Structure formats: C-alpha cells, structure tokens
C-alpha cells in the first residue's frame, strides 16, 4: 500500500459553492451582528463552524436509507442500529435520541443533582447548559497541560487530572459528587484525546467512591485511533477492540452520532445499567418519541447503523486524522499559534497569541472568526471569552476562561486539501497584518451564559 496515500473514497455527487466579494461579506457580517452563526450558510465558502452533522454519507449509507422502516413501534431499522451499537460498544441497552444533547439531557436528569458536582475533563456546552439549568455544579478537571495551548509534549491532553478528582471528592465530600463524565475526544481544548490508562484510572476512582462513570463519546473513534497510534501496547489492536475496551470502563455512554457516526442527525444513550435504561426509556417517550426511534426516522437509524462501522474503519481514520493534521502543519509553517499537537476534528488557533494586542475581554478569537470570514468566506467558531466566559455568581462580574481559541472544525469526507489551503493562505495573510486589528464589544447576550455564543451580538471597536 506504499503509494495508496490518497482519500479512501471517490466523489460521486458534488454540492456547488458560491463565491462572494469582500464587500458582500462585510455586509453579511454587519447584518449578522458579527456572529458567524447568523451568517447564511449559502454565503459561506468553506464552512468550518463545526464537524457536527456535516459529514458526507457513503453509497452504503444512502442505500441503507432506502430500506428505512418507518413503523412507529419496533421497526426493523431499530434492531439494525441496536445490533451495530451492541457490537461496537459492547453494552446491552441502546436508546436512540434525536441528537447528542437529547441524550445529554436524559443523562443529566438521571445523574446530575442540584447543588452537587458533576466532574468532567471538560464538559461540553450542552451538558453544561443542562447542568446550569438544573443547578448542578459542573467542574472541569482536565490536566494542566490540557490548558497550555503551546505545549505539544503531552500525547493525551484531554486526560482527566485524577489527583484533582480525588482532591475535590475529599474536599467537598463524596455525597456532594453525583457523576463523573469523560468526554472523548475532549472537544473544548482542541479535540485532544484521552488515554486508555486515564479512562481506566478515572473509572477506578469512580468505582472506589461508588460514583457513576459516564463517557460522552461523540468522537470515540478518533480517540481510539489516537490510542492506537500513541499509547504503548495498542499499535496492533483493531479500532473496534479499543472502542470496546474504552466502553468497558463506563456505566453509560452518551453520543452525538453527528460526529463519528458519520450521519447528519442522531444521538445515542447506551448503558449497561438496566434500571437506568428503564428510566431513560420513560424520559425518551415523554420527550423524544417511542423507544425504538427516539426522535429519529427509520432511514436515519439505518444510516447510523452503517455509519458507525465506517467511522471505525482503519483507512478512513488514517485519512481523517491526517487531513486535520495537514491543516495544522500548514498553519504552523506560517508561524500561526495553534493548539498543539493538532487534535482529531479540527485545528484550534490561539486567539490571544494570534492577536496579542487585543485583550481577552475584547474577544480576540471572535475577532479572528470575523476576519477569516471577511477575507475568505471561511466560517469558524469562537471558543473563548464569549463561549466559555462566565459570570461570578456573587458579583455578577465577567470571569475570563483559561482558553481563548478559534476552532476550525473539519467536516468528515467533505472538503479537499485545496479547501484547507484556502484557510491556511487567508489566515497567513491576516496573521501578517495582525497589528492592524482591534477588538470587539458584546452588545447582546442570552440569559444562560454557557450558551450565549450561539445568539450573541457584537460591535466592532
Ligand atoms: N457532546 C460533545 C462532546 C459535543 O461535541 C456535542 C456537540 C454534543 C455533546 C452535543 O451533541 O450537537 O448532537 O446535540 N458538538 C457540536 C460541536 C455542536 O460543534 O462541537 P448534538
């Protein structure tokens, strides 16, 4: 296979992209309140706002969709999906949901408790939003290296700091910790992986204190690939076996299938706890739909049943992780400060190091999002002062987050390296002119701070 270094697929159907002028894009930005979420997708040239729900599906998935069984109850498509999940996850009880946050909400209802800690490496926004609404205390205890964007030395920067976990349990009392959640890969600090050893050790602490251990596994296949490539002892282990071992340590897994499931919509709540499963089914019926579809159509269940296997394919994962790394390497060549090493689903640019003259409270990463769209029609997302900023519950003052980054999310099987070159060239141009940029001011924010970035409005300073 020496010369077979290209994508392990060819393109059968294309979606045309529209080119726009800089003047048009400046107008679109103004209309959108300088929030990229509000720019119309048709006016985006390369869309990197997320890797979620944006995958290109395969011929096998489209063919499976034609066999979707749309029966309300006990449809054939559910049993196809259930068999795939049971096989890959090695867990018996499978509840589909319409997307990841619905599984999050069920999980939060069953495991998060008002006034009690939910420990995570770094919780994703939607669990954090649910926790905030319920009054649970979401604690991020990732290792310190995970917050140091410049350090490339650690191969698993998504790891939980187990010393911090035991310290928090000792200080707050085990009765005040209701759940431990491991997010793999860790989205919020760069799609950084978690090692098998760390998953195991964290699960052992959870077991010792009788605290349920959950995995948020939206990008579990990418995490498994990093374990195979980087963790001693796994080089010859097939991805499916690595996945089964990861899941063997948790009681329940929640998944946004829109990432490594290679589908456009769907979620999963998977457990080995029968009583929890029964409770999850009741919540599903009340909110999502009957238990065998949980908010998904029969055809979507079929696409996921197939997509889960394609997502753990060795050739696919090699292509996937190396395409993201290609962009990371191109940015590094230009001296652009990125989170290192490059993670699984995107390249994360450090906004503070990119724009050292823009203070964090003037949103340097958001300024970069705006500049990149303005110059090249490329759309990314801010994960910094706006998305991760919080309010001091006593003083109401803004608290700045440790990380200040812009994520370039790379969709699966969608863009070629030529598209990634557009991003690299445009970012290189902005970086050369970085001294000419000023910050931004937040002029509208929604009430739930952890979700404010989706609807925020800005003005340019
Ligand atoms: N967990 C993680 C780790 C996620 O990254 C996401 C979504 C969810 C849960 C929620 O899943 O969107 O299917 O409801 N992340 C997307 C992103 C939105 O852009 O990173 P969902």
Quick structural gist:
By secondary structure, the chain is α/β, with parallel strands linked by helices. It contains 15 helices and 16 strands.
Task: Give a structural overview.
The mean pLDDT is 96. This protein has helices at 22-31, 59-65, 76-89, 100-111, 125-134, 162-172, 196-208, 220-230, 239-248, 274-287, 298-311, 314-333, 351-354, 364-376, 417-432, and strands at residues 46-47, 93-97, 117-120, 137-140, 177-183, 213-216, 252-256, 267-271, 346-350, 378-379, 381-383, 390-391, 398-399, 405-409, 440-444, 457-460. The protein has 2 domains: 22-51 and 318-460, Aspartate Aminotransferase, domain 1 (Alpha-Beta Complex), CATH 3.90.1150; 59-310, Aspartate Aminotransferase, domain 2, CATH 3.40.640.10. The longest helix is centred in the C-terminal third of the chain and has 20 residues, at 314-333. The protein starts with 21 loop residues before the first helix and ends with a strand. It is built from 15 helices and 16 strands. The protein has a 7-stranded mixed beta sheet, with helices on both faces. Strands 9-14-11 form a 3-stranded antiparallel beta sheet. A two-stranded parallel ribbon has the order 1-10. The protein is of the alpha/beta class and 461 residues long. Helix 3 packs parallel to helix 11 and helix 14 crosses helix 15 (417-432). It is globular. Ligand F0G is lined by residues 50, 52, 99-101, 104, 124, 126, 183, 187, 216, 218, 256, 258, 267. Its cofactor is pyridoxal 5'-phosphate.
């Amino acid at each position: 296979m020496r010369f077979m270094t290209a994508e392990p697929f060819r393109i059968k159907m294309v979606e045309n992209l529209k080119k726009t002028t800089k003047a048009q894009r400046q107008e679109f930005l103004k209309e959108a309140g300088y929030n990229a979420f509000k720019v119309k997708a048709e006016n985006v040239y390369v869309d990197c706002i997320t890797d979620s729900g944006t995958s290109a599906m395969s011929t096998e998935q489209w063919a499976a969709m034609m066999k979707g069984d749309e029966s309300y109850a006990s449809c054939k498509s559910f049993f196809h999906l259930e068999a795939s999940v049971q096989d890959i996850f090695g867990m018996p009880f499978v509840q589909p949901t319409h997307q990841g946050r619905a599984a999050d909400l069920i999980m939060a209802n069953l495991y998060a408790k008002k006034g009690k800690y939910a420990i995570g490496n770094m919780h994703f926004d939607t669990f954090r939003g649910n926790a905030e609404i319920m009054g649970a205390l979401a604690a991020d205890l990732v290792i310190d290296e995970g917050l140091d964007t410049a350090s490339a030395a650690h191969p698993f920067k998504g790891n939980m700091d187990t010393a911090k976990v035991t310290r928090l349990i000792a200080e707050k009392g085990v009765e005040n910790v209701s759940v431990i959640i491991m997010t793999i890969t860790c989205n919020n600090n760069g799609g950084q992986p978690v090692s098998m050893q760390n998953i195991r050790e964290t699960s052992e602490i959870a077991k010792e204190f009788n605290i349920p251990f959950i995995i948020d596994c939206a990008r579990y296949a990418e995490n498994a690939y990093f374990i195979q490539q980087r963790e001693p002892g796994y080089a010859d282990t097939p991805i499916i076996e690595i996945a089964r071992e990861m899941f063997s340590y948790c009681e329940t897994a929640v998944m946004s299938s829109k990432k490594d499931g290679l589908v456009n919509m769907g979620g999963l709540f998977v457990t080995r706890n029968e009583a929890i499963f029964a409770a999850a089914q009741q919540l599903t019926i009340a909110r999502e739909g009957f238990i065998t579809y949980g908010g998904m159509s029969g055809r979507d269940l079929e696409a996921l049943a197939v997509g889960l296997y394609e997502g753990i394919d060795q050739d696919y994962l090699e292509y996937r992780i190396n395409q993201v790394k290609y962009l990371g390497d191109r940015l590094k060549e230009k001296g652009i400060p990125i989170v290192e090493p490059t993670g699984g689903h995107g390249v994360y640019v450090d906004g503070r190091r990119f724009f050292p003259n823009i203070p964090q409270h003037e949103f340097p990463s958001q300024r970069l999002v705006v500049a990149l769209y303005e110059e090249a029609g490329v759309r990314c997302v801010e994960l910094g002062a706006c998305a991760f900023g919080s309010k001091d519950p006593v003083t109401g003052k803004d608290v700045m987050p440790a990380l200040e980054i812009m994520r370039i999310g790379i969709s699966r099987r969608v863009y070629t390296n030529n598209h990634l070159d557009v991003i690299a060239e445009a970012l290189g141009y902005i970086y050369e002119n970085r001294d000419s940029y000023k910050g931004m001011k937040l002029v509208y924010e929604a009430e739930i701070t952890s979700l404010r970035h989706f609807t925020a409005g800005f003005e340019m300073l």
